Amino acid sequence: MLKNKLDVNRRQFLASGALIAASSFMPKISLAKEDTKSTKSAKVVIVGGGYGGVSAARQLRKLNPDLSITIIDKNPFFVSCPMSNLYLGDFYEFGNLCFPYEPLKAKYNIDFINVKVTDIDLDKRVVITPYDRISYDFLILSPGISYDIDQSQKDFFIKYPPAFKPGGEHLYLKRLLEGFDGGKIVISVPSYPYRCPPAPYERAAIILNYLTKRKLKAHLYFIDANERPIINSEGFMKAYYELYKGYADYITGATVKEIDTVNNIVKTTNGDFKFDLANIIPPMKASRIIEKIGLLEKGQKWVEVDTFTFETKIPNVFVIGDSARSFLPKSGFGANMQGKIVANLITERITGKKLKQEELLMVLCYSMVSDKEAIMSETSFKIDKAKNIITPIHREDNTRRESTVKRYHEWAKGLWREMFG
User: Fold this and answer.
1) Which CATH superfamily, name and number, covers 150-280?
2) How far apart are alpha carbons 116 and 74 in whole angstroms?
3) Cβ neighbours of residue 404 closer than 8 Å, sequence gap 6 or more
4) I need a surface site. Which of 45, 159, 170, 303 has the fewest CB within 10 A?
5) In the predicted model, what is the mean pLDDT of residues 257-266?
6) DSSP summary character for residue 94
7) What is the mean pLDDT of the chain?
8) Any idea where the Flavocytochrome c sulphide dehydrogenase flavin-binding domain is (predicted)?
9) What's the pTM value of the predicted model, to 2 decimals?
10) Inter-residue contact 183 to 273 (CB < 8 Å)
11) Residue 337's closest CA among 350, 348, 352, 326?
12) What is the pLDDT of residue 38?
């Protein structure tokens, strides 16, 4: 049966350290003076073509028809992490998660360079690649996350990918799952914050659905460093109990200490677990390029940015998405909104014209718990810049519904249309 220490608390997500009053943990950063360059002469470079980067580029183009906008990303096309768990469960085609960057140039005159950024000279305002040096007036960094692991663990995470970065990791994890014909599976969740709060819990449910549909003789050990699911606790726990009883043990408050790769054993603070297939989701931190260029303070995992503008200590350099310490959750939807906020601010600085800023932001999170049902949550953030306060209001629908699955798909497709047209 499922083991847990569950005390359902719908406010866990809000109390987890990411969603609190802005003034309590964010640095005061002076805004740069308005840059009065014309949109024809100003250059915006965006490092990272994920949800944050592409959303920023599209909003910039919407507001500035003549602005020079360049996205740089090492991947040749966009692959969505949101909805990727559905691919693992055979609910969604991988190809439907992929979008080429070429239409951004053809439709919106947004340049795309498919190359890895090796360095950035913040003093000279130059992005450095193996082949070129790209100058900028405004820099938006949206490079995503890095796994916070030792080099000694690297081979294990190649063999058993976490699949919390887009692309090949999901393809290989799916191959491992398809080759699994029974035995023990271990999935682990790191302490919050990490990318996409409900994703590990959705993945556990989807893999359990995969096992039960195929009637495999298997057992899943779900090891959670947190005391309960970070979000939609009630909905996930009901799904585990009512749909997958007998297939899993849920072990809470357990941190992975060591992985014995010879004997296939995960050693935790709450026991050791042997596995035939593992999906160890490690702790996460800001992207390595962020650390390399000196924007990450010593001992910190996430970049300190201005609460409302996402500007770093360097004027006109912004960090959005998962690498930033923000009141918004580390999610595709959160990065999408951050990209728009920064695009509006850059437009104000270029044109000298004030734009109406949103005073209420909303983040939606959907999670499949079976092949036919989903749950969801929404968090609204009321912005009061004058008082330097952000007030979150969190609501959850923990009832499993087929109609929520339809909304889940519509939500994702709506975001992709907004980004790629």
Assistant:
1) FAD/NAD(P)-binding domain (3.50.50.60)
2) 4
3) 366, 373, 374, 375, 376, 397
4) 159
5) 96
6) G
7) 92
8) 361-420
9) 0.91
10) no
11) 326
12) 64
